[in-house]
Amino acid sequence: MADQTSPLPLAGGAGGGSDHAHIPSPNPSRKREGDYLRFRDDAAADEPAVSLDAFFEQPNAVSVRIEAGDDPERLIPFLDRVKLIEVDFPKFRDGRGFSTARILREAGYTGEIKATGEVLVDLVWFLRRCGFDSFAPNVAIDPAVLESVLARYPYVYQHAEDGAVPIWQLRHPELARG
Amino acid sequence: MYKYDHYDQAMVDARVEDFRDQTRRRLAGQMTDDQFKPLRLKNGLYLQLHAYMLRIAIPYGTLDSRQLRKLAHIARTYDRGYGHFTTRQNLQFHWIKLEQAPDILAELAEVEMHCIQTSGESIRNISADHYAGAAADEIMDPRPWAEMLRQMTTFHPEFSYLPRKFKICVIAAEEDRAAMRWHDFGLRIVKNPNDDGAGEIGFEVYPGGGMGRTPFIAYKARDFVPQHQIFSYLQAVLRVWNRHARRDNIHKQRMKILVHELGEEEFTRQVEAEFQRILTLKTDFPQAEYDRIAAYFEPPAFESGLPDEIDRSDPDFAVWVDQQVAEHKAPGYAIANISLKKIGGIGGDITAEQMEVVADLAERYSFDELRVAHTQNLVLPHVRKQDLYEIWQTLREAELADANLDLVTDIIACPGLDYCSLANARSIPVAQKIAERFANHERQQDIGELKIKISGCINACGHHHAGHIGILGVDRKGTENYQLLLGGSGDEHTTQAKITGPGFTEDGVVDAVERAVERYREIREPGERFLDTYRRVGMDGFKEAIYG
Questions:
Q1: CA distance B46 to chain A (A)
Q2: Spatial CA neighbour of B36 closest among A92, A37, A36
Q3: What is the band of B35 on the pLDDT scale with cuts at 50, 70, 90?
């Protein structure tokens, strides 16, 4: 991912025109209510995600679902064959999925990480920073609100998984990271 | 003190608009109160018994006159003309209207203040020694590190929805004036004990403390974390907790519970493994950024050749000096403590007019700097000794010249059932009755240092676990009942107070405190404080006197 100082803008919005991202229309084949937001350009995996335990029993599985409380590190040796990881948020206050995504990204995973469950619009900016790049919430997300939420913070204070350059580094452009 | 640059300002301004939008969506019915609650809590807005309460961050307890005047303005314009300093060095207003909260944030942003992460399940405002930069015994000013950690923990994406709140404290002296080991993550700045005197700066780290209904004192997990690895270490601690804490019972989700359940050794092992991994990500800030921030905390331009003597010819002034003035590292200077514990008043409360008086004093006499102590008092950190008499006269006119620092009437009490929806019992009237009982200054001085701390419920906001004498209000069959505790401390020899026995009525607990104090006076040895005597004789030495 390229370095950037603000979250990815949404195509078609005020900050649109980006070739980094787009919001597809809600996928009519999905049974889940609400919108499916995807910030990737590659083709989405069309296999339904299986549970972590089932994934280990199915050598051909490429989509896997991590429930809150599952240990994402079990997946690390198998990331090469994974195309989609769903991370569930049973309640929006349950923040374990934030660490899950970071651990997967830190391990080098570049495929899709999708947040499912009670993903409220005010979480999306934080989730994007942790490495989530698609969202299939079971609650409605107003695209206009999402757009303003994602555009709200012009900077970040720390490195994460979105490539954003932290403020301290902007203050010292002469320095390399770390 | 630290000044925002355009980056810091942009982030705080963005938060104002963020919260304005969240409030608008809530008021328009676009989200439920359940969904709005964590958003407003992350911005310090609680719904209490009678109104909203707004908690304003005062990072590491440092303020300037412009900021305090703004708080006075907010008190007058949006509240009832007063504010309340808290045990986390913050200020809160208790009579706020939801629809005005965004405007208050905008006013605060004008003076580089905010309410970010002052409540909710987030990394809270970072506290520090209130004598930082002035104390003779510190190895350095801890506030540059507190400011670094403030920035690095602001909107940290991974730790946005933690299991519970997370409190950090930074000190840099042997003496602990900030109750460091009662925090989720306590830090003491030290020189590397193993580098043969080279003097490398780093941190002793103490995770796992906290009060609440299940109190634990933080344990030392490491003698030394090098200074430029502390953010990695902190992230490791947070990640282990965020991943493994219980999520099924809000009363068992603080990090101290996980530390207790895993054991200190296993928790440390997991943190160390995560720490080594996170170090490789190179997320720590560099020396150049530390230097930039530390420059804001350079000592002010102290004058040399000032008189070191204080004219004590006015006996009332001498009483105040003896109680309220502490040693400063620069000759001719002193640290002046301002009591917010007027007998019969509400501890920590201050009117808008008093805020303006204190702001004027800070501007005129203390290099425009003020501190908030966790004991809910204020501090003028850098005053010339020759100015103390004028300062005292001004304070006296503003009814701020009480001389009771660390004495029996310098009581910490939570807002209790007078304000708080969680409370089981009132705290403020108990504190007032105890203060009135011991109002006589000679009697207070004879008793000496005695820290009474009162909580109106088991959540322990009044720090009763750390009181030399603690009082815990509980609901007993529909009536308020008070348990008495002895022997707690938040100093460098941190201890948890123990319950004496059966509880008391409101008046009964005041009498019981007096009996404990009188027992101490009977059996103390020369030079012993109440806490020292308790530690020598134990609960048995007091129990009979208390219960007869």
A1: 17
A2: A92
A3: confident
B281/A106 CB distance under 8 A:
yes
The shortest CB-CB distance from A157 to any of B21, B151, B159 is to B151
Contact status of B309 with chain A (Cβ, < 8 Å): no
Query: B47 and B157: one domain?
Result: no
Q: Based on the fold, state whether residues B138 and B92 are members of the same structural domain.
A: no
Q: Identify the domain containing residue B213 by its residue range.
A: 127-294
What is the rounded distance in angstroms from the CA atom of residue B289 to the CA atom of residue B491?
Answer: 32
The ipTM value here is: 0.94
pLDDT of residue B320: 98
B343 has a pLDDT exceeding 50: yes
State pTM to two decimals. Answer: 0.93
Nearest to A129 by CA among A149, A139, B223, A143: A149
- In chain A, residues with a C-beta closer than 8 Å to the C-beta of B283 are 158-159, 178
Query: Rounded distance, CA A4 to CA A6, Å?
Result: 6
Same domain? For B422 and B514 the reply is yes
Asked, for residue B188, whether it belongs to a domain, the answer is yes
Share of chain B above pLDDT 90, in %: 94
| Domains of chain A: residue spans and CATH | 37-152 (3.20.20.70)
B157 with A160: Cβ contact below 8 A:
yes
Residues 6+ apart with CB under 8 A from B8: A167, B112, B151
Tell whether B9 is within 8 A of chain A (Cβ).
Answer: no
pLDDT score of A32:
38
- Domain match, B362 and B338 both: yes
CB contact under 8 A, B283 and A102: no
Whether B218 is covered by a domain: the verdict is: yes
Beta-bridge mates of residue A89 = A117
Nearest-CB residue to A126 (from B8, B157, B231): B157
- The predicted model gives B215-225 an average pLDDT of 98
C-alpha B79/C-alpha B320 separation (Å) is 32
The total number of structural domains that make up chain B: 4
Residue B307 maps to a domain:
no
What does the pLDDT read at residue A35? 63
In a domain, B368, yes or no: yes
Question: Domain check: are B106 and B219 in the same one?
Answer: no
> Looking at the predicted structure, is the pLDDT value of residue A55 above 80?
yes
Cβ atoms of residues B170 and B126 within 8 Å: yes
Max Cα–Cα distance, chain A, nearest Å: 50
**pLDDT per position as a tens digit, B89-132:** 999 999 999 999 999 999 999 999 999 999 999 999 999 999 99
Evaluated on CA atoms B344, B350, B356, B358, the torsion sign reads: positive
Q: B260 and B133: one domain?
A: yes
- Specify whether B171 is located in the same domain as B284: yes
Give me the mean pLDDT over the B162-167 stretch.
97
Query: Are B417 and B393 within one domain?
Result: no
Could you tell me the pLDDT band of residue A2, with boundaries at 50, 70 and 90?
Answer: very low
Residue where a domain terminates, one of B110, B136, B158:
B110
